[in-house]
Amino acid sequence: MSVTVCTGKLHCVNVTAAKLDYEGSITIDPVLMTAAGIVPFQLLHINSMANAVHWETYALAGKRASGEICLNGCPARLFQPGDKVIILSLEQMTREEAAKIEHKVVYVDAHNKPIRTVIKKASDAFMAKSSAR
């Protein structure tokens, strides 16, 4: 049996553009994609810090080192430049694989440049839960 696991997170990145006249997706600076372990065409969840809007779409690589976070198509009506969003990357895997996962949380500056990455290990979460009992 497979489970869907959040393997990466871009925390509080700034939307830099919203293009309504596009087929749809989110364009992301490849530096940010690499930092969070996001691959092109991967399903992502985008959540607005301002109004809790949630959108699912796929990733496209933008211009390297640009800080670009551009919502394309329909979500351009929901997310505007300057909005802070959380972007979650998801993967399907077995429970055994999920128990070994390393979840990357990428923090950025005001220009969407990575300033810190925190790696959270599933094994640490299991240990903390079992020791709290």
Largest sheet: 9 strands, mixed
The average pLDDT value, as a whole number, equals 92
Sheet with the most strands: spatial strand order:
2-6-3-5-4-7-1-8-9
Question: Can you count the beta strands?
Answer: 9
Distance between the first and last residues' Cα: 27 Å
Into which percent range does the helicity of residues fall? Answer: 10-25%
Number of helices: 3
What percent strand? over 45%
Q: What order do the SSEs take from the amino end to the carboxyl end, as H and E?
A: EEEHEEEEHEEH
Question: What would you call the structural class?
Answer: alpha/beta
What Rg, in angstroms, do the CA atoms define? 15 Å
Low-confidence stretches: none
Describe the structure.
This protein has 133 residues and is of the alpha/beta class. Helices cover 16% and strands 48% of the residues. The protein is built from three helices and nine strands; from the N terminus they run E-E-E-H-E-E-E-E-H-E-E-H. The chain starts with a strand and ends with a helix. The model has no long low-confidence stretch (mean pLDDT 92).
